[in-house]
């Protein structure tokens, strides 16, 4: 029995943020019913190549993108735009604890599937809406996408190299991070609403906006502005509040050094054979190092050029200075640490005996995550789910 095996989730969301939340709930044991458009399904089914290959090596219709965020679900095809489909969904809601949707503001009301209508049918329903800008505010009716919101939410303004450096300019994060974070916040909101339902017996609406999430996730960068009046700028791989905490160039390439306190900095200077830097008044504390970043970093960089990456990583590990390589995705998923943590998992798939996916990072001692269903083929469970719940 999973931690959430008592829950049934009706997932009307598509693409990434909503499906990410429902996949987490499925991994934790919830029964998740994914509603898809007849014929085409979730948009990400066609977002390839690459596509999964079957046991004979032939390409299937299952895109790698779809597979990454739809594990553990049952696929049911229903036409939400038809009166019959809307009636079927309203009946399904009577049997569900949670509904997740990411349609534009107003769309669900036109289908008769808005929170107020469905809460009247099932007062215990937790109804999670995910949009670009939320259910209220002057931008609420605008569509929102991860790339757009990374820009509007300030994230791109602090990502990338300064304009003064080669290749400088704002950059998006290399994955759809705003969508992923919104999926995580949605999961937290859903679980909070379910916990409150234990006391009140009532469900409620959870309103998530990609822009709100991006603003919240700016963390110390937002606080630097709100508390300190500093409008953050792009620093490449450097940190606005900690020095040295960035990438350095060794004799044969790049590595990361993440010095988090003054004692680590002292050990770092000893490892570099530059102990005098830790005694220099300009660098003796982190606050001073931040103020004198432009004087310190060239001195450290010059020392780092004296050895290869592998040498530095061994020396810094012995010195207990946080440092690490800049792995490729391939190197990450071949690393002993990732393998030992079961972050590569195999699930049985009808078209592929061993579909490999990224594991769930949540490790529970009594009710561990289980991978009981592969990502579904389109409409795979339409008949069985509707027959079981609606006796059709």
UniProtKB/TrEMBL annotation:
This protein's record includes keyword Transferase: yes
Domain of life: Bacteria
Cleavable signal peptide: none
Pfam families, alphabetized: CoA_transf_3
Gene Ontology MF annotations: CoA-transferase activity
Keywords, sorted A to Z: Transferase
Name the record gives this protein: CoA transferase
């Amino acid at each position: 029995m999973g931690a959430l095996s008592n829950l049934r989730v009706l997932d009307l969301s598509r693409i990434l943020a909503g499906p990410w939340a429902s996949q987490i709930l499925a991994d934790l044991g919830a029964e998740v019913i994914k509603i898809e458009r007849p014929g085409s399904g979730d948009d990400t089914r066609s977002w390839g190549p690459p596509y999964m290959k079957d046991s004979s090596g032939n390409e299937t219709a299952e895109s790698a993108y779809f597979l990454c965020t739809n594990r553990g679900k049952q696929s049911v095809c229903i036409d939400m735009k038809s009166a019959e489909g809307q009636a079927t969904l309203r009946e399904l809601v009577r049997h569900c604890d949670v509904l997740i949707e990411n349609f534009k503001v107003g769309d669900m009301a036109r289908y008769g599937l808005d929170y107020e209508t469905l809460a009247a049918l099932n007062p215990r329903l937790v109804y999670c809406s995910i949009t670009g800008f939320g259910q209220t505010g002057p931008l609420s009716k605008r569509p929102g996408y991860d790339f757009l919101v990374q820009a509007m939410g300030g994230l791109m303004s602090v990502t990338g190299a300064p304009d003064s450096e080669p290749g400088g300019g704002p950059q998006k994060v290399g994955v759809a991070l705003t969508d992923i974070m919104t999926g995580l916040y949605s999961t937290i909101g859903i679980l909070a609403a379910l916990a409150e339902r234990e006391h009140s017996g009532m469900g409620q609406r959870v309103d998530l906006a990609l822009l709100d999430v991006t603003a919240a996730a700016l963390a110390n960068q937002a606080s630097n502005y709100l508390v300190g009046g500093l409008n953050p700028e792009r620093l490449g791989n450097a940190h606005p509040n900690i020095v040295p905490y960035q990438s350095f160039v060794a004799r044969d390439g790049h590595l990361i050094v993440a010095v988090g306190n003054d004692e680590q900095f002292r050990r770092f200077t000893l490892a570099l054979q530059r102990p005098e830097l830790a005694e220099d008044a300009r660098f003796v504390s982190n606050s001073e190092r931040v103020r004198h970043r432009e004087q310190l970093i060239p001195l450290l960089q010059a020392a780092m050029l004296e050895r290869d990456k592998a040498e530095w990583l061994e020396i810094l590990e012995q010195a207990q200075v946080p440092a690490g390589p800049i792995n490729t995705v391939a190197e990450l998923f071949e690393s002993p640490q990732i393998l030992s943590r079961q972050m590569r998992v195999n699930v049985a798939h009808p078209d592929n005996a061993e579909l490999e996916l990224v594991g769930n990072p949540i490790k529970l001692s009594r009710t561990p995550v289980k991978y009981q269903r592969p990502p579904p083929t389109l409409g795979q469970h339409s008949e069985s789910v509707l027959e079981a719940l609606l006796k059709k």
